[in-house]
Structure to design on (477 residues):
């Protein structure tokens, strides 16, 4: 019984989170939709066609944000994992768990859009190039985290095990990146975040940045929704357990 | 230090008396290396070109196969809890058990590799490099395997989950191990730069992996 009460106490803070996120979510959703509309309009009707790539260059406007957010998702998990391991905060557990499937989706989308672009441009859907390989391994890290969450039933234990794995992975991501960079590389190097300023024309850069902002907000909208779902799912489970416990004590008293 | 050494010796003695793990790992290594030419055809030029990669990938799989045993038997008979309550910090317990795993599995696999390389027609001057890179890389495999073993301890499908968790972490060892060998076989990249990075990976793993694995063990022993 004390365990159930303890769970309720720990959910006190998530209650505030639910209220706050519930108030913010509609605004955030509206902003995301607006940014997406503006970004898609800019990307499809304003941005110039590439003289070599033609319309295919438009894939870049979704592919690059997907890839950025794939990495941002793992950073969110890393920060949440630190919070969950050091402060044992249940909300950090929820944040890490909710971010993993979303990050995995963005990673998969980055790979799919990239290979759809690669077929007409490079002549092949897939090459074992450094960038592609390291993103594929990032996808495997996401899948490993999700599998670990599913394998351990007790949420707090699963959360801390996944946090340990996420931190090990976050140490490993630069190493993987660095190791596969030694291979011959077909993928173009970074051209936006450079010390000497972006290497692409503003007419392409502006739509790209708007799309990146839109997808960043999309990530956080989905993340907040997934966190709320996870919190509610845990509450339902606790409620069911209390009902079962109450029913058990009633029948026990009768007998 | 005395406790550390006695724990390593205990694990080695157990591994020797139980036997099974190393024969399974060696047999698995042999079969994976032998089955690839059956699928790829007996072209010796092709085989000698892909030999470093094949030998390394098969080594990773064989090392992975036995990794979930690192803590499993000790958890089942309860000795893991006794060891955890003992004077040795859990990080050093993990290091001792990983070291014993390396001595009982990693070293035999590294010794078997040059023999299997004969099957794949590896160029003659690469045999020493093969043995050297594998002796350097296998400790990292054992120590990373300990993280996976500690995380999946006591889970029902632990063995399958372990491979999904740990294989991505094995990738840097694989890449630099193969790169060091290819540097000697085909050039032109220098051998030493790849080899030193492999060495650095192993040394970093020796320090960092016990911390992560011990955290996971504490979680699972609660």
């Amino acid at each position: 019984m004390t365990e159930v009460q303890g769970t309720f106490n720990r959910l006190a803070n998530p209650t505030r989170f639910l209220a706050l996120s519930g108030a913010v979510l509609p605004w955030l959703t509206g902003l995301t939709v607006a940014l997406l509309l503006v970004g898609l309009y800019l990307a499809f009707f304003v941005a110039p066609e590439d003289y070599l790539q033609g319309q295919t260059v438009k894939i870049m406007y979704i592919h690059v944000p997907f890839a950025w957010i794939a990495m941002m998702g793992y950073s969110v998990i890393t920060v949440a994992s630190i919070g969950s391991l050091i402060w044992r905060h249940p909300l950090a557990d929820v944040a890490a768990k909710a971010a993993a499937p979303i990050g995995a989706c963005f990673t998969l989308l980055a790979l799919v859009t990239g290979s759809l672009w690669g077929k007409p441009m490079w002549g092949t859907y897939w090459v074992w190039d450094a960038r592609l390989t390291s993103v594929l391994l990032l996808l495997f890290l996401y899948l490993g985290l999700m599998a670990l969450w599913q394998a351990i039933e007790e949420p707090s234990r699963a959360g801390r095990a996944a946090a340990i794995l996420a931190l090990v992975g976050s140490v490993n991501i630069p190493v993987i990146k660095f190791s596969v960079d030694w291979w011959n590389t077909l993928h173009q190097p970074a051209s936006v975040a450079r010390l000497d300023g972006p290497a692409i024309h503003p007419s392409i850069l502006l739509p790209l940045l708007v799309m990146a902002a839109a997808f960043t907000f999309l990530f956080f909208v989905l993340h907040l929704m997934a966190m709320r779902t996870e919190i509610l799912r845990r509450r339902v489970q606790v409620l069911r357990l209390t009902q079962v416990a109450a029913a058990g004590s009633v029948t026990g008293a009768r007998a | 230090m005395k406790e550390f050494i006695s724990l390593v010796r205990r694990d080695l003695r157990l591994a020797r008396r139980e036997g099974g793990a190393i024969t399974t790992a060696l047999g698995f290594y042999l079969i994976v290396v032998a089955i690839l030419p059956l699928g790829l055809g007996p072209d010796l030029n092709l085989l000698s070109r892909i030999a470093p990669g094949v030998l390394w990938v098969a080594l990773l799989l064989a090392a992975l196969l036995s990794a979930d045993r690192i803590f499993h038997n000790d958890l089942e008979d309860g000795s893991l809890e006794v060891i955890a309550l003992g004077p040795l910090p859990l990080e050093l317990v993990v290091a001792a058990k990983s070291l014993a795993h390396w001595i009982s599995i990693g070293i035999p696999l590294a010794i078997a590799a040059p023999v299997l390389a004969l099957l794949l027609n590896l160029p003659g001057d690469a045999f020493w490099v093969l043995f050297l890179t594998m002796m350097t890389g296998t400790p990292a495999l054992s120590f990373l395997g300990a993280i996976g073993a500690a995380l999946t301890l006591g889970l029902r499908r632990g063995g399958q989950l372990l491979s999904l968790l740990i294989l991505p972490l094995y990738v840097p060892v694989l890449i630099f191990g193969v790169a060091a060998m290819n540097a000697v076989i085909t050039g032109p990249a220098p051998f030493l730069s790849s080899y030193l990075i492999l060495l650095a990976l192993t040394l970093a793993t020796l320090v960092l992996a016990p911390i992560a694995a011990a955290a996971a063990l504490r979680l699972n022993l609660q």
In short: Chain A touches chain B at residues 85, 137, 140-141, 143-144, 147-148, 151-152, 157, 160-161, 164-165, 167-169, 171-172, 175-176, 178-180, 182-183 (CB under 8 Å). Residues 58-183+200-247 of chain A form one domain. The helical segments of chain A are 2-10, 12-46, 59-86, 90-122, 130-151, 155-180, 202-254.
